[in-house]
Amino acid sequence: MKRVLSGMQSSGFLTIGNYIGALRNYVKLQHLHECFFMVVDLHAVTVPQEPAALREQTESAAALYIASGIDPNKASVFLQSHVHAHAELGWLMTTLTHMGELERMTQFKDKSAGKDSVGAGLFTYPSLMAADILLYNADLIPVGDDQKQHLELTRDLAHRFNNRFGDYFTMPEPYMPEVGARIMSLDDASKKMSKSNPNPGSYIAMLDEPSVIRKKISRAVTDSGREVKYDPQNKPEVSNLISIYSHFADMSVAEIEAKYEGQGYGPFKKDLAEHLVAVLEPIQQRYREIRASGEIFDILKKGAEEAAEVANATLLEVKKRMGFVI
Ligand code: TYM
């Protein structure tokens, strides 16, 4: 059995990009391995957040994990800020990280582009992410394609630590979906679908009402052709919609292409919206029940206790090896 760790930021409401790229795999992996899934609220504050919005988005993300099928008796579900070892190992990892490594991170470049002032936390963010992973000596990290670079840095830091302080950390591997590791915006297929995009038409939130989902899909940008064909190079918008379709209908790309041959985009988009609604509506129903019951707080408390047991043991060992007086 392997150990799995992953997390999502509560800097907005979760989108179908988060669901396809990562959350679906969380649900799958819980049946096979020992799993830790957190909401990374400490990461969320690396860009300014309103306190009330942060609280709501954090609770919402945790409830959506459960509503999507994560069983808190199988996997530990918790908030990053509830397990103090994350912040502490995050600091220790920052001291092992080189400025040049952080300067190369494309997520930092994207998020800081054009800003007059950028928080230092946005810059050191990857060191905290490395700590998140290494605290659990995790083997598999279910993530979307955009996190690959952060994971490579995590491996570099693990190597660096092991070289200086003796072999200790496991080398984590990314676990990504074959299709859909990078779901693109509905209004611009050159950009990743993102929960922090100011245009809500660019993404489908997991909590969007069915009427909103239908409207967003009908307005999603396509091209001037009429062939439903997976060709990311020449037909990026349609290919993106096919990836989404494939996940929500559990159909292969080839099956989808065959189904809509010669039919144009109209019926394809209409069916896509219905597949999205068919999967998301029951999740939304469970989500409302979970929020109303307040059970999420007990789940998060139990999850944090389970996580802290593992994380604190790692932190203690790391501090010993680094020369701290214990
Ligand atoms: P975040 O919050 O941006 O996204 C959460 C997860 O969703 C995936 N994802 C996508 N996948 C496909 N298409 C998209 N458009 C899309 N948008 C997001 C992300 O790849 C991610 O897996 N740094 C991380 C959070 C993090 C973390 C960790 C992840 C912090 N510590 C430790 C794994 C392990 C992030 O910003 O994800």
Automatic annotation (TrEMBL):
NCBIfam families: trpS. A motif ('HIGH' region) lies at residues 10-18. ATP binds at residues 9-11, 17-18, 144-146, 183, 192-196. Homodimer. It is an enzyme of class 6 (ligase). Coiled coil: none annotated. It comes from Paenibacillus hexagrammi. InterPro entries: aa-tRNA-synth_Ic, Rossmann-like_a/b/a_fold, Trp-tRNA-ligase, Trp-tRNA-ligase_bac-type, Trp-tRNA_synthetase. Gene3D superfamilies: HUPs (3.40.50.620), Tyrosyl-Transfer RNA Synthetase (1.10.240.10). CDD domains: TrpRS_core (cd00806). Catalyzes the attachment of tryptophan to tRNA(Trp). Its main location: cytoplasm. This is Tryptophan--tRNA ligase. It is found in: Cytoplasm. GO terms for molecular function: tryptophan-tRNA ligase activity. L-tryptophan binds at residue 132. Its EC number is 6.1.1.2. It catalyses: tRNA(Trp) + L-tryptophan + ATP = L-tryptophyl-tRNA(Trp) + AMP + diphosphate + H(+). Keywords: Aminoacyl-tRNA synthetase, ATP-binding, Cytoplasm, Ligase, Nucleotide-binding, Protein biosynthesis. Belongs to the class-I aminoacyl-tRNA synthetase family. The keyword Ubl conjugation does not apply. It comes from the Bacteria. The keyword Cell membrane does not apply. A motif ('KMSKS' region) lies at residues 192-196.
